[in-house]
Design brief:
The chain has helices spanning 10-33, 59-86, 91-102, 104-114, 127-152, 157-177, 188-216, 225-248, 257-284. By secondary structure, it is an all-alpha fold. The chain starts with 9 loop residues before the first helix and ends in a 13-residue tail after the last helix. This is COX15/CtaA family protein. It comes from Halorubrum laminariae. InterPro entries: COX15/CtaA_fam (IPR003780), COX15/CtaA_HemeA_synthase (IPR050450).
Length: 297
């Protein structure tokens, strides 16, 4: 008899883990933007000589809470990979989940280096470590998204339409918080909002590319391969542009007027291509279901 409750499916577990990773990403941005990453006196894993700091909203607590959330999320990520191996999932689902776990130690190491400036690793709080921390986190998030999508074993034109809608909504919402568009002050809270919405858009694009690829392989009835290829290309292009805006959202370059214009162009390209993908899917009007289980590939 299984000890797992009936309501706990792989899809729900993996989706929850992916969502927690999204929140972790934004928490990390907020922690860095408020300068809280240096609040624990350059210590890791301790915080100001304590395992648990004072539980009030202060820089120490923000950094500590970020670490705790990261620890819990890390264990959940390991659980996703373990489930794929024990549950008889297809190779690509196992590969995506396993790769997420494989690069997790790198993310933990870079995070530790980032907050140990003046400590174990002098000069750890630098642009290069911030960039590495951001890129590795994005890779883990993307791999978890793919494991969730592929592990679900289902797809349809309806899900493809939902994915493109999420992509468009996320990217457009991110524009409200983006430093390229001066709608709001690019405060720590706005930066967290930018990454929550931007990553939601990225998630929609990942799903769009995954579902469109299934359609290219002939998986959808009433959805021709040429249309699916167009949708995939538009979503992939939007994803590249969006990742560019996510990178420019951090202080990885001296943010001059030139970089702001580049950021604005990248954001516009991401929106236009995502809208193009959504419009193409809607115009196709396919209603067929995935004819073969992804898990059975």
């Amino acid at each position: 008899m299984s000890l797992r409750p009936a309501w706990l499916s792989f899809r729900r577990y993996a989706a929850t883990t992916t969502g927690m990773t999204l929140v972790l990403f934004s928490l990390g941005v907020y922690t860095a933007a408020t300068g809280s990453g240096l609040a624990c006196q350059a210590q890791w894993p301790l915080c100001s000589d304590q395992l648990i700091p004072t539980l009030t909203i202060n820089p120490d607590f923000i950094e500590w809470f970020h670490r705790v959330w990261a620890m819990v999320t890390g264990f959940l990520i390991v659980g996703v990979a373990g489930w794929t191996w024990l549950g008889g999932f297809d190779r690509r689902t196992k590969l995506a989940a396993t790769l997420a776990v494989a690069i997790l130690p790198l993310q933990i190491t870079v995070g530790a280096i980032t907050v140990t400036v003046g400590g174990l690793v002098p000069g750890g709080y630098t642009v290069s470590t911030h960039a590495a921390h951001l890129v590795v986190a994005l890779c883990i998030f993307t791999l978890l998204a793919l494991a969730t999508i592929w592990g679900d074993g289902r797809g349809s034109p309806r899900l493809l339409r939902i994915a493109t809608a999420i992509a468009v909504a996320g990217i457009v919402a991110s524009a409200v918080f983006s430093r390229a568009v001066p709608f709001v002050t690019y405060s720590p809270g706005a930066q967290a909002g930018f990454y929550i919405t931007g990553l939601a858009g990225h998630l929609g694009l990942v799903a769009t590319v995954a579902y469109a690829t299934e359609a290219v392989r002939g998986g959808y009835a009433g959805f021709d391969r040429s249309t699916a290829r167009i949708v995939r290309a538009l979503a992939a292009g939007s994803m590249v542009a969006l990742v560019g805006t996510l990178l420019l959202g951090r202080d990885l370059v001296l943010y001059t007027g030139v970089w702001q214009r580049i950021n604005l162009v990248a954001l516009a390209v991401a929106v236009v291509l995502a809208v193009g993908a959504a419009w193409t899917v809607r115009g196709a009007g396919g209603t067929g279901q995935l004819t073969a289980s992804v898990r059975g590939d």
